[in-house]
């Protein structure tokens, strides 16, 4: 019988922190685009498009890696409601990391704007041009952007809670340090640990 994992693999940790940086950059770029008037935000849009596609591809890779490498189980003394909230927020973050770029791609396709990754690299449209669809997708993209921001803050808060208050090793497991024997994990959570890889800032599964 294999020993229980107490930290994430190197691949999971690298993907986690790279995507954390990309999503944080994407959020700041999005704020800049909303706050900038006229056509002065075009250079931000030129960064926004390829960054979104990069996040989409990395999220798919992380999903694949996560399915092959279950997360370390949660501490056994973590309250049930916190355990449920951690798992739900974990799945929500992954859904957002995949849905947001797809919505942006579909929105630009419906608006007749090409998704340019470079001066000579253009992605195909995934929706026909349609003004009504463009308006709906633009609203949905904006709403989900706010949701992603709040989920990001929740994960950051949870990471600080685990590191500074509970001191249960959850954050250390995403930094590459093994959880100590004084930080046991419950058998029930071992069954729950076959979900997706770790989002932005670690909560239960980082």
Automatic annotation (TrEMBL):
Keywords linked to the UniProt accession: Cell membrane, Electron transport, Heme, Iron, Membrane, Metal-binding, Transmembrane, Transmembrane helix, Transport
Residues in Cytochrome b561 bacterial/Ni-hydrogenase domain copies: 8-176
GO process annotations (BP): respiratory electron transport chain
GO molecular function, one term: electron transfer activity
Entries under Gene3D superfamilies matching the protein: Transmembrane di-heme cytochromes, Chain C (1.20.950.20)
Range of residues in the leader sequence: none
One cellular-component annotation, GO: plasma membrane
Matching Pfam families: Ni_hydr_CYTB
Similarity remark: Belongs to the cytochrome b561 family.
Protein name: Cytochrome b
């Amino acid at each position: 019988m294999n020993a229980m994992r107490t930290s994430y693999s190197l691949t999971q940790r690298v993907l986690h922190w790279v995507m954390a940086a990309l999503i944080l950059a994407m959020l700041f770029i999005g704020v800049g685009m909303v706050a900038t008037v006229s056509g002065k935000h075009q250079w931000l849009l030129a960064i926004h498009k390829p960054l979104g596609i990069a996040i989409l591809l990395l999220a798919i890779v992380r999903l694949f890696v996560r399915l092959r490498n279950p997360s370390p189980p949660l501490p056994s003394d973590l309250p049930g409601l916190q355990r449920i909230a951690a798992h739900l927020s974990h799945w929500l973050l992954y859904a957002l990391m995949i849905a947001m770029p797809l919505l942006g791609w579909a929105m630009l396709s419906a608006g007749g704007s090409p998704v340019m990754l470079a001066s000579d690299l253009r992605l195909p449209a995934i929706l026909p041009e349609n003004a009504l669809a463009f308006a709906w997708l633009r609203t949905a993209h904006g709403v989900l952007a706010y949701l992603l921001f709040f989920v990001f803050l929740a994960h950051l808060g949870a990471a600080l809670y685990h590191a500074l208050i509970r001191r249960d090793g959850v954050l250390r497991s995403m930094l590459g340090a093994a959880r100590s024997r004084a930080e046991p994990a419950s058998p029930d959570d071992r069954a729950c640990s076959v979900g997706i890889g770790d989002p932005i800032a670690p909560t239960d599964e980082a």
